[in-house]
Design a protein that fits this description.
Length: 243
Amino acid sequence: MRDSLGHALVRDHTVYACVMGSRAFGLATDGSDTDRRGIFVAPTPLFWRFEKPPTHVTGPLDEQFSWELERFCVLALRANPNLLECLHSPLVEYADATGRELLDLRGAFLSRRAESSFRGYAAQQLGKLEADLRTRGELRWKHAMHLLRLLISCRDLLRTGRLTVDVGEHRERLLAVKRGEVGWEEFQARIRTLHEETDAAAARTPLPQEPDRARVEDFLLRVRRASASAPVGVLVPESAQRP
């Protein structure tokens, strides 16, 4: 039943949907998947039950993943790179009035927390790459490419106060990494350079120390109140409802 409910929520209550992954990053090649991400608003009456609505849903389409609005906001306020990038995707497929208001709020999620979160994700990925090198004697160069992309994104966010998802002029250099045309030592040197540049950017970043949590929470409360007074309708197929 949980899958039926989750898929119904994505189908009927999505407020924002976009394409992420290589297509949004400007790194797509022949055969690249289309990764879809979205945000849905579970009707407020569902939270009055013992069994709460899902915080996230996989599907119903291939390569599709969606978050419930509150969960999305919580993670984005922590500067989770995946969620911040979702709000800044250049490939928006759908946004209703609530989704458009969320897009208008995306600057409220940006803060200096991004430095530690982006670098933390990059450090985790580097650890996995080093483990692969020790145990398998080879690297997953696609993962190495995305590590560099993440550090470039972090550096530029700290420099400008704006998050840009498309890699732009860095595309060919990054794809060369994916093809394995860059050696391990050069790859490590690029990481060191990016960390040095990120240090310099962090020292004079225009980003605020903390995200605007109050503004985001006000938005969430207004969405919940509006949902509480709206008709819920049928949320799951009849066959999946409780007897």
